[in-house]
Amino acid sequence: MGGQAKDDGNAAPWAVPWSTRWGGCVVKIAIVGGGIGGMTLALALADAGLRDVDVYESASVIRELGVGINVPPHGVRELAELGLLDALLAEGIPTADETYYSKHGQRIWHEPLGLAAGYRWPQISIHRGRLLGILHRAVIDALSPDRVQTSHHVAGVGQDGRGPWCELVDRTSGAPLGRVGADLVVGVRRAFYPDEGPPLWNGRTLFRGVTVGAPFLGGRSFANIGHSSLRLVVYPISRSHEDRGDALIYWVGHVATDDGRPMPPQEWTYAARLEDVLGPFASFRFDFLDVPALIKGAEVVYQYPMVDRDPLPTWDFGRITLLGDAAHPMYPMGANGASQAILDARVLARELALQPSIEAAVTAYDGQRRPATSTVGGSDGLPESRRGARTGRVHQSRERGEPTGVRGDRDRL
Ligand SMILES: Cc1cc2nc3c(=O)[nH]c(=O)nc-3n(C[C@H](O)[C@H](O)[C@H](O)COP(=O)(O)OP(=O)(O)OC[C@H]3O[C@@H](n4cnc5c(N)ncnc54)[C@H](O)[C@@H]3O)c2cc1C
Predict the structure, then answer these.
(1) Cβ–ligand 1 contact at 329 (below 6 Å)
(2) Is 412 inside any structural domain?
(3) Are 132 and 77 in the same domain?
(4) 64 and 47: one domain?
(5) Ligand 1 atom having least distance to the Cα of 68
């Protein structure tokens, strides 16, 4: 562990008293990747009183990239505990309901979501970049701007007698930046599973875009139209557009595209050809939504293969562990990509605050989150050949209950 700690006068009253834990030592934590999971972890650690935290991010700047993302109540409750509910509601839409339609536009199923369904926290639909921006600003406020180090690509992780380390490379110049030691490193799956090969593609491609348009259905609705091999998911994601009387509409088309074609590149910013998505959805013109017009209205359409990996046997490598997509890449369906990463972050921070050692915290985290995430995913997108390996998978995890992070446990600290 690093040098001696002194109590931080700014620490919240429930924070971990450093001077009484782990012999009064500062715990130095290196997080690989400043995405949704990495930023939430940095914030959750600061919230738990662990402030010697560095986030190493490959990208040269933290850009607000992506399109739409959904954070269900169990993810929102964790972010609310970290003080972000007002910021989320100022940017995103508290989604009110979800409706399923056939490819002919016939209504099949309708149910309330979030607060309307009786949860204590809303379900929030938001631009992924805006969510990242909210988290990034909160991390800077809680730690400091230089704790998020961009252009710092982690080329490898390992551990020796002194503890774990990260090997850093300048992503822009390619220059080596050397090795940094820490007490805990979070990230880099390949170091432990080097022979995994490419991710598993289910033969479907996701075409994604955002379009400014008129509010549809109730104005805060989440709609699923079509069936498992040709489906459009669509929902509004911007509060400021709603306030102006229009809607920033996120849409994602799921299209079966494996007819002899290779898997599309696994890059979130890879642009698609408009005709590849317009063709399959040409007949999706309904009284509540004109899908071809929606697609044509997007400035750019991205494509991404629907990939995941089977659950790992362990995330517990002593003082190195995994989180978010590095630990459990899953189909971006069922609103779980972001929320499961958020839950990972909160549980890891909580266990670090409560357990007697880093190793015990990593073991406790692995014991809770690995079994939980291995049952979550879009089972209807899973190829037949892999269904047996995933018995018990649920499409969407809609956990109720108390927050899993530190504040919910403050009375026990
Ligand atoms: C640019 C981008 C756009 C996305 N857009 C959407 C979207 O529109 N809708 C959606 O549902 N999901 C989107 N996702 C995925 C979504 O954010 C994640 O599935 C989910 O939030 C889980 O979070 P995560 O932190 O595990 O992964 P991510 O949010 O993907 O973050 C991982 C971060 O780690 C960085 N990184 C990776 N390897 C290294 C390394 N070796 N060294 C240093 N840094 C590294 C990446 O640059 C990235 O910033 C997007 C991801 C990215 C990177």
Answers:
(1) no
(2) no
(3) yes
(4) yes
(5) 8
**Claim to verify: residue 76 and residue 180 sit in the same structural domain:** yes
Indicate whether 398 pLDDT > 60.
Answer: no
Q: Which residue has the tokens 């406020």?
A: 141
Secondary structure of residue 336 in the 3-state scheme = coil
CATH number of the CATH domain containing 296:
3.30.9.30
Across 171-258, where does the E strand assignment appear?
Answer: 176-181, 184-186, 200-213, 221-227, 230-236, 247-256
Query: The domain that contains 81 carries what CATH number?
Result: 3.50.50.60
- Residue 315 CA to ligand 1 center (angstroms) comes to 19
pLDDT in tens, 136-147: 999 999 999 999
Q: pLDDT tens digits for 310-338? A: 889 999 999 999 999 999 988 877 778 89
Give the DSSP H or E segment for 71: strand 68-71
Query: Could you tell me the pLDDT band of residue 173, with boundaries at 50, 70 and 90?
Result: very high
Say what the pLDDT of residue 19 is: 42
Nearest CA to ligand 1 atom 30: 35
Does 378 sit in the ligand 1 pocket, CB within 6 Å? no
Alpha-carbon gap, residue 99 to 105, rounded angstroms: 11
What confidence tens digit (pLDDT) does each residue in 183-204 have? 999 988 988 999 988 888 888 8
For residue 137, the enclosing domain spans 8-88+128-196+316-386
Domain membership flag for residue 115: no
Residue with the bigger pLDDT between 66 and 364: it is 364
Whether residues 52 and 142 fall in one domain: yes
Binding site membership of 308 for ligand 1 (Cβ less than 6 Å): no
Provide the domain count of the chain.
2
143 to 10, 52, 137, 341: CA distances (angstroms): 11, 8, 10, 20
- Is residue 213 domain-shared with residue 75, that is, in the same domain? no
Tell me if 332 CB under 6 Å of ligand 1: yes
**Rounded CA gap, 364 and 225, in Å?**
40
Q: Does 369 contact ligand 1 (Cβ within 6 A)?
A: no
* Percent of the residues in the chain that have a pLDDT greater than 90, as a whole number: 70
